[in-house]
Design goal:
Blueprint: E1 7-10, E2 15-19, E3 24-30, H1 51-58, E4 71-72, E5 76-81, E6 84-89, H2 92-98, E7 103-106, E8 110-115, E9 119-124, E10 127-132, H3 141-156, H4 167-195, H5 198-214, H6 220-234, E11 242-246, E12 255-258, E13 261-264, E14 267-270, E15 276-282, E16 285-290, H7 293-299, H8 307-312, E17 315-320, E18 323-329, E19 334-339, H9 344-367, H10 380-399, H11 404-415
Helix pairs in contact: 4-5, 4-6, 5-6, 10-11
Length: 417
């Protein structure tokens, strides 16, 4: 019927079915006589359906697969690209589903394809997109999904079921997609580690852990962490060891400190020779007293004389107005957060550990430098290094991170006394 004009056409000896120019519709009518065939527009279609007419409707040739794409679904155009399924939102609902800009769902990221009663479901990892299909094109949905599955198999070498999947099958498919994506991301980080770009490795590794958590795969973060550690060991790189966690006083993200990096929320920064951490504590504990009327009534001898004993037996109250802060930073970054006063001790321990790590990095960097002459004389740069170290010790002493005795000993070591 391809190319035939829209109208009523014979469907058996006594019935006619309506052709809209592209496909058969579920509209039928009974002819007056077997020889009469009228394709005029003046006849009203009926909803009477016979077994013969339904067989004729089902037997109508489907649209050739070559002409399926681009497939105009409800608000979304589906097409095929070598790298994956190309989606374009044509309405505000469609753009809300696939995004404001055209996008491609990579073949490797597709976990399931299903034909639903209302459309086509494409699951990208965990994210499921149910793309509606107009009722007049519903018969073509199975052919669209079948063709997409064929292209998936060509691109990946794996088969993809297009029937209804169980919960267990969906979980397994999503986990497989997660593992493949994780392997690709870890491989990219390996190239960065080999290049020696520590700052980029810190940022990318943390981004990988954030992504793993967002996928909501059971054990996904642990799997990502273990693969990263295995990669570092295989390349002879340092494996981070956790130093401690600084918990904020409010609902801001906590600070996780490792021996070569710090994580806070979605950000991560490397610890280097210039990194410095401090804990600040200001304010004071105030002790106030107010009259205790209960004690006054007990100690009063005459009515109306309760105030004198109440003043004598005043009730003391402590008001803690202290505020504690934790600061850590380097040349081009800093993290600051309010912390509970009762956690100042543990925060100071973490700050001391960070400063010790930074000092060790500075010593290693200095020892790795080869002197130009056997007897090098002190230079202005050496004086600047000594000044910066003394200033750091003074700042640690003022913040309370170290005692005066510890500060004196550290200054003596720096000055070589």
């Amino acid at each position: 019927m391809g190319g035939a004009a829209a109208g009523w056409y014979p469907n058996g000896p006594a019935w006619e079915t309506y052709w809209d120019g592209t496909q058969w519709l579920d509209q039928h009518r009974q002819v007056a006589s077997p020889s009469r065939v009228d394709t005029g527009a003046n006849h009203q279609p009926t909803t009477t359906t016979t077994t013969q007419s339904m067989e004729a409707l089902v037997a109508a040739p489907p649209q050739p697969e070559a002409e399926l794409f681009p497939f105009a679904a409800s608000g979304v155009i589906i097409d095929i690209r070598p790298e994956g399924i190309h989606l374009v939102g044509t309405t505000w609902l469609g753009r809300g589903l696939v995004g404001d800009e055209p996008r491609v769902v990579p073949w490797d990221d597709i976990s399931t394809l299903e034909v639903m009663t209302t459309g086509i479901r494409i699951r990208e990892g965990r994210k499921a997109m149910l793309i509606g299909v107009p009722s007049k094109l519903a018969a073509q949905s199975p052919f669209v999904v079948k063709r997409l599955a064929q292209e998936f198999e060509i691109a990946t070498g794996r088969t993809l079921s297009t029937g209804k999947v169980t919960r267990a099958e969906k979980t397994a498919a999503v986990e497989n997609v997660f593992r493949r994506a994780l392997s690709r991301k870890v491989e990219t980080i390996g190239a960065v580690i080999e290049s020696g770009d520590h700052s980029a490795e810190v940022a990318m590794s943390h981004a990988l852990l954030v992504w793993s958590k967002a996928q909501k795969i059971k054990g996904g973060v642990e799997l990502a962490t273990s693969q990263l550690d295995e990669l570092r060991r295989s390349l002879g790189a340092h494996v981070p060891v956790m130093v401690g966690i600084v918990v904020p006083a409010n609902f801001s993200p906590k600070l996780t400190v490792f021996d070569d990096r710090v994580h806070r929320g979605g950000e991560a920064r490397p610890i280097d020779a210039s990194t410095q951490a401090q804990v600040f504590l200001d304010g004071q504990v105030q002790v106030t007293s107010r009259p205790s009327m209960t004690a006054g009534l007990i100690g009063s001898m005459l009515p109306g004389t309760a105030l004198l004993p109440a003043l004598a037996f005043g009730k003391k109250e402590k008001t803690d107005t202290r505020q504690a802060e934790f600061h850590i930073g380097s040349r081009d970054w800093t993290f600051s957060m309010n912390i509970p006063v009762q956690s100042v001790g543990s925060a100071r321990s973490i700050a001391q550990r960070i400063n010790a790590i930074a000092d060790g990095m500075e010593r290693d960097a200095r020892s790795s430098q080869v002197p130009s002459t056997p007897t090098a004389t002190p230079s202005l740069s050496d004086d600047a290094d000594l000044t910066s170290q003394i200033e750091r010790i003074v700042a640690l002493e003022r913040s309370g991170a170290i005692t005066a005795e510890q500060a004196t000993a550290m200054k003596a070591r720096v000055l070589g006394l």
